[in-house]
Amino acid sequence: MNPRMVFIIFNIFIVILALFLVFKMNGEYGKVIHGASWDAKVFGNKYVVSLKNNSEIVEALTDFVKTQDIKAGTISGLGAVNSVTLRFFNPETKQYEDKTFNEQMEISNLIGNISTKDGKEYLHLHITLGNSEYKSIAGHLLKATINGAGEFVVEAYQNAKIERKFDSNTGLNIYNFEEK
Ligand code: FE
Fold first, then answer.
1. Cα(140) to centroid of ligand 1, in Å?
2. How much is the pLDDT for 62?
């Protein structure tokens, strides 16, 4: 075979490969996936996540990041709950103080990050809620039960891993960027 022919065949091969990859990527973009307590639509490294009614937020989001193998990223969201347990860390005593509120509230904001501790998925979530009086409470989210909708966006950092470790100085699980 003459070199010109080889060159033409090689180019045809490259074009077919490129078309195949473009079609494959288009098929993945906007793909819908399902879990026991969530449904999600995938747009590259961003996931639009809908939590099922009556699911517990921390449990459902942890299940989501575990099944998608997300080791680092961010979470934001809104929705409505009828029960929430918030945690307050007292730096003086290094003790947690937990408080549960059983009433219908709107999640006006949930913000969080995804990392790992001892290699296991670790979510750090904070939440602001508004009640029927339009008054708000806020804090570190321990658990909350969806009553209505739970709409979240998870952004996964690709090929990333961020570890935490317990810091006896503060009494907190803080970032350990030295850990690979
Ligand atoms: Fe916190």
1. 4
2. 98
Pair of tokens at residue 133 = 């009086």
Select the more confidently predicted residue: 109 or 20.
109
Q: How far is the CA of 124 from the centre of ligand 1 (A)?
A: 6
In a domain, residue 83? The reply is yes
Residue 180 included in any domain: no
For residue 38, name the pLDDT band (cuts at 50, 70, 90).
Answer: very high
Name which of 67-76, 80-89, 103-112, 170-179 the model is least confident about: 170-179
Other beta carbons within 10 Å of 143: 17
Q: Indicate if 74 and 23 belong to the same structural domain.
A: no
Residue 22 Cα to ligand 1 middle (Å): 41
Residue 43 CA, ligand 1 centroid: distance in Å: 28
Q: Are residues 50 and 136 in the same domain?
A: yes
Q: Convert the pLDDT of each residue in 77-100 to its tens digit.
A: 999 999 999 999 998 998 999 999
Is residue 109 domain-shared with residue 167, that is, in the same domain? Answer: yes
Domain count, the chain: 2
**How many whole angstroms from 170 Cα to the centroid of ligand 1?**
13
